[in-house]
Description:
- This protein has 235 residues and is mainly alpha-helical.
- The protein has 2 domains: 2-107, no CATH class; 118-220.
- It contains 9 helices and 5 strands.
- The strands form 2 sheets. It has a 3-stranded antiparallel sheet with strand order 3-5-4. Strands 1-2 form a two-stranded antiparallel sheet.
- A hairpin with a 6-residue loop joins strand 4 (179-182) and strand 5.
- Helix 3 (70-80) packs antiparallel against helix 4 (86-97) and helix 3 runs parallel beside helix 5.
- It starts with a helix and ends in a 15-residue tail after the last helix.
Amino acid sequence: xxxxxxxxxxxxxxxxxxxxxxxxxxxxxxxxxxxxxxxxxxxxxxxxxxxxxxxxxxxxxxxxxxxxxxxxxxxxxxxxxxxxxxxxxxxxxxxxxxxxxxxxxxxxxxxxxxxxxxxxxxxxxxxxxxxxxxxxxxxxxxxxxxxxxxxxxxxxxxxxxxxxxxxxxxxxxxxxxxxxxxxxxxxxxxxxxxxxxxxxxxxxxxxxxxxxxxxxxxxxxxxxxxxxxxxxxxx
Length: 235
């Protein structure tokens, strides 16, 4: 993909030069390629970090005879290479691990790849906090109609708690079909109704292919669920 981009840029500036609209097109191409090198190196480091996190669960799955869908893996690898936030890298690593299936033909994680691509670090942190609140109540009927209050101080301290930004990003999560906002966010918290898709995304990003009910049920019973990491313990 990066090589293709370079070709597009080169073709663009050469076309401009041929029409005398731009002088020094070859130098511009050279400058672009030189500037791109550290970007590529940075992307490689990001991807290596994600793969390192995914390695234990992925190796275990492959040893058990599971297979990886090549299309899904390529999609994840390309997108994960652009992620440098450690928490988001962990989500991408979990998605790699949960992409393993018996015949390698399962491409269901493409949906979650598209969703995760659109999440900011703040949105991923909010999703994690929200789903860990849902976990202990996963056996309750009509769970996905139940409102939960999410205090902003439950988000990582590394995230700037700007009320306007948090409100804006939570609104985006609603647009993505991951939750429903109840009322208006206050200065300190927001009430949301988590939707099933959010919990499915969260579980897949933990490296598990279980349903949210199965995943959180094992957590509530104190049994670790197979995946990238153990599910959150109930309070």
